[in-house]
Specification:
mainly beta; elongated; disordered C terminus; Immunoglobulin-like; six-stranded mixed sheet
């Protein structure tokens, strides 16, 4: 009996070691979650580790240098990196290409055993360079995805690189741009941006801008005129990190979360996608998987600043969840991380909420500091309405 117990304990310790000190095991390849880190949840804050690539495109058998790099005085002990298809409409589970191991690394995953790369020891690392080779017969756009282990209880899963495009330029519907993710500042203070001088003059704005400190959130809008039934919106937020993310604006009849018509911008590996949605209970339900009532204009993610611009119809007949923007509403703005499939993960911070209703046909400038000193009520407090709502997505997407 004692021998059996000792054997089980040794097996557990070995599994923990394989999942940390000597690299990822084959069973970790599909999920990219390091085995042996039992009870550890992936970090939901932005990753201090980035993936850089030496080229933005590839062809058959082409070799690309990939760099894992730490930022802001962080160091990583372990990692697992793979290349997968970037387009969420196609198979994203297949491991693409092969890696050539270098010092402190070893191949893992796939029939070749080199479809991914992982660490071979737990020494602290600030950067690693290695080579990825493209396969034959594939033209899909790809993205590199990595898991970083800073310590046993601190891990980041599915950190993504910029897109590496294939020869076959597959059309991605309602995508505004291929993103090139840049180095980002190490603090929100360093990443704040300047207020648009047109606010309150030729465009309306809802913001948290300060005279000297800059802005971390700004929503601007321009009504295109009485004979054009659309309004142009731009949402700009500070969102440090290089992972998939989202920002959303809600139009509400009160300052509480719920019964809100939402427009969301979601960044995944392929670019920025736009969706109309609606808040029901603790869930956010997408009205459509296409930008119905929306015209994407542009999107960018650079130096810690995430921005998206779109044109929204004032009225969409046949769906009362798509609110009529000829009316006045409170504005709610929230942001958070997204999954590789483009689903929103619940926002970490309380959303910005205007304390007054806003006429979107006027060029007013509304500061978020006009909020009451005490928040209307905690996010978890039920509304008097029969349903309660929030800007975050349903729990199944987390």
């Amino acid at each position: 009996m004692h021998l059996c117990i000792v054997t089980v304990l040794l097996s557990c310790l070995l599994a923990r070691t394989l999942g940390y000190s000597f690299g990822a095991v084959e069973m970790a390849c599909p999920s990219m979650f390091p085995l042996g880190h039992h009870g550890t949840a992936p970090q939901t804050v932005s990753s201090p580790f980035i993936i850089k690539v030496s080229d933005t495109s590839y062809y058959e058998k082409k070799k690309i240098t990939v760099t894992l790099e730490s930022r802001c005085n962080h160091m990583f002990k372990g990692f697992l990196i793979q290349a997968r298809r970037a387009d969420p409409r196609y198979d994203q589970t297949e491991f693409i290409g092969t890696f050539t191991p270098v010092m402190m690394t070893q191949g893992v995953c796939g029939p070749s055993g080199n479809s991914a790369l992982t660490h071979s020891n737990n020494q602290t690392k600030t950067s690693l360079d290695f080579v990825w080779q493209a396969p034959a017969g594939l033209n899909d756009h790809i993205v590199f995805r990595a898991t970083f282990v800073e310590s046993y209880s601190t891990i980041w899963v599915n950190v993504t690189s910029s897109i590496v495009t294939g020869n076959l330029q597959i059309h991605v519907p309602f995508q505004t741009t291929w993103l090139t993710r840049n180095m980002y500042p190490c603090s929100i203070k360093d990443a704040r941006f300047t207020m648009d001088p047109r606010c309150g003059d030729t465009m309306g704005c809802f913001h948290d801008c300060e005279a000297l400190g800059g802005c971390s959130m700004l929503v601007s809008w321009q009504d295109r005129g009485w004979n054009v039934p659309t309004i142009d919106f731009t949402i700009t937020t500070v969102h440090l990190g290089l992972g998939d993310k989202w920002v959303a604006i809600g139009f509400s009849e009160d300052t509480q979360m719920g019964w809100d018509s939402v427009t969301e911008c979601v960044e995944v590996g392929t670019g920025i996608f736009f969706y109309p949605s609606y808040n029901i209970g603790h869930s956010n339900i997408r009205i459509s998987q296409y930008p119905v009532g929306l015209t994407p204009v542009s999107g960018s993610d650079k130096d810690g600043i995430f921005q998206c611009s779109f044109r929204r119809k004032k009225v969409l007949s046949g769906d009362d969840r798509f609110y009529d923007l000829n009316k006045d509403f409170y504005l709610l703005v929230a942001s958070g991380r997204a999954t590789p499939e483009g689903n929103k993960i619940q926002h970490t911070w309380r959303p910005w909420i205007s304390s007054v209703t806003i006429d979107l046909q006027k060029h007013t400038s509304i500061h978020v500091n006009t909020l009451p000193e005490q928040p209307p009520r905690p996010l978890s407090h039920p509304k008097t309405h029969p349903h309660q709502h929030s800007l975050h997505s349903r729990s199944t997407s987390v």
